[in-house]
Amino acid sequence: MRPEALNPLFAEVQTLDGVGPKLMKPLEKLGLTRIKDLAYHLPERFVSRTAIADLDSGSEGEQVIIALTAVEHRAPRAGSRGPYRVLAQDDIGNICALTWFGKAAYAAKKLVPVGEKRWIAGRLDRYGDMLQIVHPDHIEAESAANMGRQSEPVYRLSDGLTQPRIGDFTRQALARLPELPEWIEPGQLARADWPAWRDALQLGHETTDTKAHDRLAYDELLANSLALLLVKAEGRRRKGQALAGDGGLRAKLHLPFALTGAQARSITEIAGDLAQEAPMLRLLQGDVGAGKTVVALNAMLIAVEAGKQAALLAPTEILARQHFETLRTMLAPTGVNIALLTGRAKGREREGLLMGLMDGSIQMLVGTHAIFQDTVNYRDLGLVVVDEQHRFGVAQRLALAAKGRRAPHTLAMTATPIPRSLTLAQYGEMDVSRLDELPPGRQAIDTRVVPQERMEEVVAGVERHLASGQQAYWVCPMVREIDGAPDLADIAAAEARFAALKERFGDAVALVHGQLRPEIKDAAMERFASGQARLLVATTVIEVGVDVPSATLMVIEQAERFGLAQLHQLRGRVGRGAEKSTCLLLRGGALSETGRARLALMRETQDGFRIAEEDLALRGGGELLGTRQSGEAAFRIANLEQMQKLLPIAHGDARLLMERDGGLTSPRGEAARLLLYLFERDWGVQLLRGG
Ligand code: ADP
Ligand code: MG
């Protein structure tokens, strides 16, 4: 149970003045449901405004406060999506426009009645040959004192919220912050000269004070490291079982290739871990195509040789099926019984699978998260392999680890190359094996950046490619959020592209995206994998794992909208066979300098670790760090710079605290528990109770 001291912080935001049901939606959209969320919703930036007497003394791009009188309202035509405009004039008769888009327009009507003077704060922009202010930050009937503030916070908003509103809510939230005991080690606190927690939050909303921000970032990193170390400690405490295979089954494998040095080394490291009673917690990091599957297979065979079961967890249905097929083929000479369990197994089929798992006749299982539902029981699960680890959160990992009668060993695999500086933040609780060597004979993928306007040429190129008997992917971008209609735009894009390409290539084109029914998606994948379909139009659902060696061309539309790590993984779908492969990155018109540099980097190198490091340097690590896909809280406060500066310190401090007080029972340990709750890493605390 959550400590009582935190109750005021976990009170719902509805308990604040002015938060009614209508505002809950926009607040929820920002993840602001509790008082503490608002307290940690730090301003994105601060603006200084200049009060100007008339528009002549203001210039484009400037943040101003100005008195204006509305002269005319121009509502958009019924049914049109145009903006709501108000023409307003200053004291000497210059006209400017006040402009609102979307839902905000409803409010605009009342805010600036015709003929009445209002003080308006916002950024001057150009609109034709007029100046305009889009979505003014403040509108006051009297020149309010706070409008002239030197430095004013600007918060991230969502549709339906305004700066004054959210400013008011955060002020109310801050007023409710309790005093909490200090969790930072006194020496560190003194050295860094940081403010206390409550002061730091207060300051964080008022100024750009580095010390306050650093302290809050450190807190977050400390919470993260502590939680990961608690997982590690718990793993050590739980009794596992030593698995020593006799090599009998492994000897029967007839692989069509020799293992690379890195694969052999990783297998040795894993075998060493499995032979220990303490459960393994190891991450296998290896670029796309580095050959992680065969490493996993060896680990799973060791478990089966030792008389145990092994399970492989894949993030998607498609991947689970593909793994199942690959493994079943490789396992044929060994006689090992392998099964596939996904959410789609129903009725008698499912019952049969559950029986087989319970009586041990199924020795290996491949599946989606369905394999760790409560109703699935294993006779003796010795090893769990988690493929594409980054798709799963720690909490899911833990649920799986709790499955065996005795703690199973865990091998996590990821193809997301993580810069070294960040590995600790993401995987601080695990030992790491790196597959830093690709199997021999891989050809470089010829990567080119092509302007989107040359679409016709690109399509003609695809036509030639298909005519030569090879296959191709066509990837459309995934847009996370478009005004409350997430993912619709990208489907529209993929579907529209599919329709256009179908006109040209007929039934040779197949389509997959995440919102298709699984049977339909699989059928399309199947048609492509078997060569019936020659061109696959897809969203990022093909990102991980899919393996079709004769697909040697990939076109990626609006490549600038993808993260580099994602582009790298997508590109890894080609270049899997003997033929030379090509990747065309289509780019939109206006690219920022960073955007250009990022695409250039893709052209230049195929080394995932290097791409990760340089992408980090180019634009920060949000994309790499988030576990958005698993919906778990990632880092909300700490930015990249702070991460690099403070993570080693926070991790070291967490380790020291764990060494001195692993049960978190000392006063500082108790305080640290509060911190784990604050940053929603209380799964760390749950472990303490269980242990
Ligand atoms: P990933 O690390 O992306 O999961 P896979 O395990 O799917 O990579 O392997 C990619 C391809 O490389 C597969 O077709 C696999 O059979 C092949 N492969 C794996 N190891 C070797 C090796 N040592 N030599 C040659 N080919 C290999
Ligand atoms: Mg793989």
Describe this structure in words.
With 691 residues, the chain is α/β, with parallel strands linked by helices. It has 5 domains: 1-44 and 164-177, DNA polymerase, domain 1 (Orthogonal Bundle), CATH 1.10.150; 49-149, OB fold (Dihydrolipoamide Acetyltransferase, E2P) (Beta Barrel), CATH 2.40.50.140; 197-236 and 638-688, no CATH class; 243-435, Rossmann fold (3-Layer(aba) Sandwich), CATH 3.40.50; 446-605, 3-Layer(aba) Sandwich (Rossmann fold). Helix 7 crosses helix 8, helix 15 crosses helix 23 and helix 20 packs antiparallel against helix 21 (608-619). The longest helix is centred in the first third of the chain and has 28 residues, at 210-237. The two termini are 15 Å apart.
Bound molecules: adenosine-5'-diphosphate, magnesium ion
Major sheet: size, sense and barrel closure? 7 strands, parallel
Overall mean pLDDT: 86
Which word captures the global form? globular
Q: How many structural domains?
A: 5
Estimate what percentage of residues fall within beta strands. 15-25%
Q: Which spans have pLDDT < 50 for at least 5 consecutive residues?
A: 479-489, 621-633
CATH class of the largest domain: Alpha Beta
